Amino acid sequence: MTNSKAGPSKGMPDAGTLENDPVYTKIHELEFSEMIPFVLSNIRKRGIIPLLYLGINLIFLLLMVLIIVGGVGLELLNAWSIIWQLLGGFLAGSILVIVPHELLHGLAYRILGARKIQFGADLQQFIFYVTAHRFTISKGQLAFLAMTPFVLINLVLITLTLVWAKEYLLFAATLLFCHNIMCIGDFAVLNYACKHRGELYTYDDTLNKKSYFFTREG
Fold first, then answer.
1. pLDDT tens string for the chain (218 positions)?
2. Which residue, 134, 125, 168, is CA-closest to 34?
3. Cα torsion for 117, 123, 125, 129, to the nearest 10°?
4. Is-contact 170 178, C-beta < 8 A?
5. Distance (Å, rounded) from C-alpha 187 to C-alpha 9?
6. DSSP per residue over 46-102, as a string?
């Protein structure tokens, strides 16, 4: 098998090199079907990344409460507007946002140089993913790939809401709260990578539905 059509960046080992060169050591082999245990294990580990994930979600939860209390106090929100904005935000942040979220992962892969990009889902685990067959990325590139949807969706929606739709603050806050919770996999993978000092490389094998992680000795 060969790497993704575009090949790795200059100086980046391809999948074959990682497998066969003794300077690289495989440290983890992850079945796609084992993603949930992997995510839960790594998001529970101590570190800045899990604290950031928890802190962001707590901030948005508190923001939702403050918007409701303040909106009712200022007579800007009534029971009906609170209910529909909460329900609408929940549905949009849990379901409708899946497509743009995964497309942004695909865009990030494209920026990194991958061309054979595939979208997939495991409905039993309710996980959605984007892969590029045997396309190698480094730790820094993994961070870019993982965080692109989280950063862009938050920045764009916050900006649009504050500039043009302040009356829908509760809807936007609820949407982002739900979306950010669903970014748990991105934060968990990033935390796993950050726990390993030095060089780290990873690639997906879409045929075998596995992800491989390697470090460089010396």
1. 334 444 565 578 999 999 999 999 999 999 999 999 999 999 999 999 999 999 999 999 999 999 999 999 999 999 999 999 999 999 999 999 999 999 999 999 999 999 999 999 998 888 999 999 999 999 999 999 999 999 999 999 999 999 999 999 999 999 999 999 999 999 999 999 999 888 999 999 999 999 999 998 65
2. 125
3. 10
4. no
5. 24
6. -SHHHHHHHHHHHHHHHHHHHHHHHHHHTTS--HHHHHHHHHHHHHIIIIITHHHHH
Q: How many CB atoms lie within 10 A of CB 159?
A: 10
List of residues 6+ apart from 6 with CB closer than 8 A = 113, 114, 115, 135
b/e burial code for range 202-213 (CB count within 10 A of at least 16 → b): bbbbbeeeebbb
Of 214, 190, 205, 211, give the one whose Cα is nearest residue 140.
190
Give the separation between CA 106 and CA 114, rounded to whole angstroms.
9
Round to whole Å and give the CA distance between 154 and 177: 10
Q: Please give the structure tokens belonging to residue 29.
A: 């082999």
